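User: Could you check the structure of this?
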Amino acid sequence: MTISRHIIYFGAALLGASTLAGAAIAETRSAAELQHSRVVDTLSVVELEQRMANGDLHAQAELGARYGRGDGVPANLTKSLELLRDAAEKKDPDAAFYLGLIHQTGIGVPKDEARAVLFYETAADQGHPAAQYMLGKMIYQGEGGIQASWESAFTYFWHAADSGYPPAELMLGYAYQMGYGTPRNPKAAAYWYRRNNSRGRNAVAEQNLIKLIANREILWEPGDPGAGGPPPLETIAVDAPPPPKSHKPKSK
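Assistant: Sure, the predicted structure tokens are below.
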């Protein structure tokens, strides 16, 4: 699933929930699985139905999402939930992620943050970056009956950012800049802000880079915001820091 597909599951109602967000990944999705998940985004409803008939769970999850938002088919929340629940029971991470969004926002079902955590965790444990991000966000904010903890959330943000999920890259940069859930590390913060900004200029990443540069915590580099003068004689080589030790937060 593409990032835009994640965000617009039921349209604009979910934007607030997904524009900001599992445990250590027990199993990760292979490159082939990720590519296949992207392919189903481009298929017609008829093609998705054909693939679903052949047991394609990614196609089933995508079809469920389309019924949820009325994309190519009349909006039908009952049908959407039926398809997604069945695919999630069969361990499809996209379906579990969508069900997490549904229960977190209360679209079509009673709002239930505790159930949202469980669905996000199911998807996150299978290496679903958006689910890892959303779960991390719920943990640091103390939602779903979980004690607020940046330390626990940091693990999820790390894995999502390491997979290339842009919102998580930004969040990880912020965590390193502020020392939330990890020792403060301006160079690591700059690494993640620059990586995020390389995908397309991001105002938040640029503002935070400017602050780090102005405070002389990092040196300006070509590509950073601001004139900066000529490229500095000394540049700071910033490698991605090692992943944190895995630990699964306990729900109350």
